[in-house]
Write a structure and sequence with these properties.
The chain has about 25 residues and is mainly α. Helices cover about 95% and strands about 0% of the residues.
Amino acid sequence: FIYTFLGLGIFLCIITCSGHIAAETAN
């Protein structure tokens, strides 16, 4: 359970970081 939660957190972090990078490059 812990590993699943940790993996999900990392996955969301990566998506958030990618979104910010995409927004910065778009601007």
